[in-house]
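Materials and Methods. Structural model of Ig-like domain-containing protein. The 423-residue sequence of Ig-like domain-containing protein from Micromonospora robiginosa was retrieved and submitted for structure prediction as follows.
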Amino acid sequence: MFVRRRLTLFAMTVAAAPLAVGACTAGPRSAVKQAEAAPPSVTVTPADRARDVPISAEVGTKVSNGRVTGVKLTDDKGRPVPAQAREDGSGWVPDAPLANSRTYTAEVTVSGDSGKTATRKTTFTTMARSTKPAVTSELYFQDKQTYGTAMPVVLGFDPPIPPEARADVQRRLFVRTSPSQPGTWSWMSDGKQAEYRAPDRWKPGTTISVRSALEGLPIGKEAVGDSDRVATAKVGRQVSLDIDNTTKQMTVYQDGKVLRKLPVSLGKPSTPSSSGTMVIMEKHEHTTFDTRGEPDGGYVVDVDDAQRLTWGGEFIHSAPWSEGEQGYNNTSHGCTNVSAAGADWLMGVTQVGDLVTVKGTEVQLQPGNGFTAWNVGWNEFAKGSALPVPAGLKPTQSPTPHPGAVAGGSAPAPTPTRSNSGG
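The predicted structure was written out as tokens:
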């Protein structure tokens, strides 16, 4: 995550606070101790005169006996390059990819306990435009939107990110929240999808800012990242849906209180709905389900008020043709059927990012089949991070697992390809 302070990388002068001297302070002894203190030093990367530096480069620092008090990064025309500091102080990440085949100069100043300062300068040249194939990334988190409290930040990759490259990619994925609610990224086992969430659902009113800073990043030996992607969105009210196959009822909650119950018809035994904890991914007032070429498919049907739950094509949607069965029998091809009036009402209540839990069906939700960050507990989710997760991150409470939750985490994830099979 980004540190909250923003740096425009120009030279900064930082004055050390004067030492308070009282009547009983031994001035000469203090001076001796100050003189004996080791002077500060700093190593800066990229190395001086380095060439063919990726445009994803950042100014890295390794400091001894001091702290960074000034950073200056300029291009070959002397213009400052704005950047943000990493939370651990290990470097500064430019706000945008550097330009190809350009020369940059970085100057870093550190101050030590001795009162002395040290400055190091490095000049490097970026590489020409890469001819390696790009890994396409898609950020399923849009700018200026309002999401539900369970909305994870989700990135999809094509081709998948190999295990040995995931740590480098993850280090370039930044999430900032206000108020602060830190979390971690977690990778699907096949590397096609990474999701970010906190231990608890987002607090209503939270602002989430995301940057996927992958343009020009070397990914493995044969590929580079395709693009930088940024988005800032808000978290809205807390809404959740519980769907029980035993009772054939959907219970709609807002802020923990029941708003309404709706009868449903789920997937028939040959095409069952998935049990698990998922998230509303998309909402469509009108869409078409086209299952030609799919198993048990072959039909094309227009539907209203459809809300996607999985990549595999499970939706909540209006199904006036099954209203006589809703609350009693399962007749769908895997979707949650509700009445036309109920579906219309539901569209006005829900948001993309709302939590949906289905329980009691014949099959379990597979990891990566949709936004599945909440289908496992926090500890299991954090195991999917390619970088160390701070030990202090944990849920504020340890509630009984939601009845719709499943263990998951080990089964291969399906390809994140949108299917409008529906039904």
